[in-house]
């Protein structure tokens, strides 16, 4: 379901045309947390963002192709579950 309008992507820090800006902004991080949304309407932007950071060490709760669980859902219990899940994933990566 690709509902995002066809627009120039140069406004996005994840645009290929802004790759140097992205690297200047984030430098060489040890890890990048991916957590934007599970909404399929955002898939084109999610694909662009995922592609832009593919050369970095990333972590996130993948919920679909290029879609990651959002860190601050509406319900408090879901926020706590997200935090517990991402903490467990980070611990697994550090210990494994």
Q: Could you outline the blueprint of secondary structure elements for this entry?
A:
Blueprint: H1 19-26, E1 32-34, H2 43-52, E2 58-60, E3 62-64, E4 67-68, H3 76-95
Parallel strand pairs: 1-2
Antiparallel strand pairs: 3-4
List the main descriptive attributes of the protein structure presented here.
96 residues, single chain, 3 helices, alpha+beta, 11% strand
Helix/strand class: alpha+beta
| End-to-end CA span | 36 Å
Using only C-alpha atoms, the radius of gyration works out to 15 Å
Low-pLDDT parts are: none
SSE order in H/E notation?
A: HEHEEEH
What is the number of beta strands? 4
In DSSP terms, counting alpha (H) and pi (I) runs of 4 or more, how many helices?
A: 3
**Mean pLDDT over the residues:** 85
Shape: globular
| Major β-sheet strand ordering | 1-2
Helical fraction = 25-40%
Largest beta-sheet details: 2 strands, parallel
- Strand percentage: 5-15%
